[in-house]
Amino acid sequence: MPAISISIVCKNNIDTLPGVLEAVRPLIAGGPESGGEIIAVDSGSQDGTVELLERAGATVIRSAWLGHIKTKQLALMRCSKPWILCLDSDEPPDAELVESILRAVREDDQRISGYRVNRKVFFAGRYLHHCWQPEPRLRLVRRGYAAWGGIGPHDRLELLPGSGHERDLRGTLRHDSFRTFADHLERQVSYARLSAQALFERGERSGVLHVMTTAPAAFLKQVVVKNAWRDGWRGILAAASTAAGTLMKHIVLTEMTMREREKARSKPVADNALNAQAARNEA
User: Fold this and answer.
1) In terms of CATH, what superfamily is 4-175?
2) Nearest 5°: phi and psi at 42?
3) 3-state SS of the chain?
4) CA of 132: how far to CAs of 5, 49, 254, in Å?
5) Using N-to-C axis directions, what is the helix angle for 181-201 and 232-282, rounded to 10°?
6) pLDDT digit string, tens, across residues 249-279
7) How far apart are CA 39 and CA 56, in angstroms?
8) What's the pTM value of the predicted model, to 2 decimals?
9) Are 212 and 158 in contact (CB under 8 A)?
């Protein structure tokens, strides 16, 4: 068996994690000594997630939540095998993808340092074949050749400069992202705030025009360009949730932008008042 590490971050994922652990069993046959390993960073699970991982033979690292990027980087750095498969706790690879991973690691082409997989949301008994598609993600990498980056909460695994080439793998990474759109929208609120804060800190700004235009554009992109309508009501609601998330992000970012501008405009007035008071005191 090729030696593969499975990197997972989790917190209270007892509903989705069993499917992930079952799906990766062929990748870690033989255990850490002769095959693979599971390295899981848990940030305070209280629903049996840790016990489930330990029964599966995983090494569980207990850590405070460091943010999406830093927590996943911690898990990546604790992996010890030559190849690392990075998964979320709701992402079971299908059988075709598992075979593709095994084949790639066995071949061990020295020109290639990472492999992309295509992730598809699975919702209400069906894949979304059009909305949010394609969604390529770098997930299988050589140890020491990649790191997590991106803008929180939207993390991204990337090869380090000069690390080699990327290739695509056949198969699907199933994404059991949410059970209902009510759950998804609730998560979108948190993501919108985190994303707006990260963008603001990077120097990006927004305004009323963005609030008025970006959400409809996001919806039309999914429905018209991506053909989300072909996924039926699931696709339409998914496209609408993208628009909702985009709208909330720009609402938060616009508020931060406007408050910053108002503060900058009021500062000269306050400075002039202080200067005038100082002049009177000197007189």
Assistant:
1) Spore Coat Polysaccharide Biosynthesis Protein SpsA; Chain A (3.90.550.10)
2) -110, 135
3) CCCEEEEEEECCCCCCHHHHHHHCHHHCCCHHHHCCEEEEEECCCCCCHHHHHHHCCCEEEECCCCCHHHHHHHHHHHCCCCEEEEEECCCCECHHHHHHHHHHHHHCCCCEEEEEEEEEEEECCEECCCCCCCCEEEEEEECCCEEEEEECCEEEEEECCCCCEEEEEEEEEEECCCCCHHHHHHHHHHHHHHHHHHHHHCCCCCCHHHHHHHHHHHHHHHHHHCCHHHHHHHHHHHHHHHHHHHHHHHHHHHHHHHHHHHHHHHHHHHHHHHHHHHHHHHC
4) 28, 29, 25
5) 40
6) 999 999 999 999 999 988 765 556 556 665 5
7) 11
8) 0.87
9) no
Q: What residue has token string 């985009």?
A: 246
For the chain, the domains span 4-175, 181-274
- The one-letter amino acid code at 203 reads G
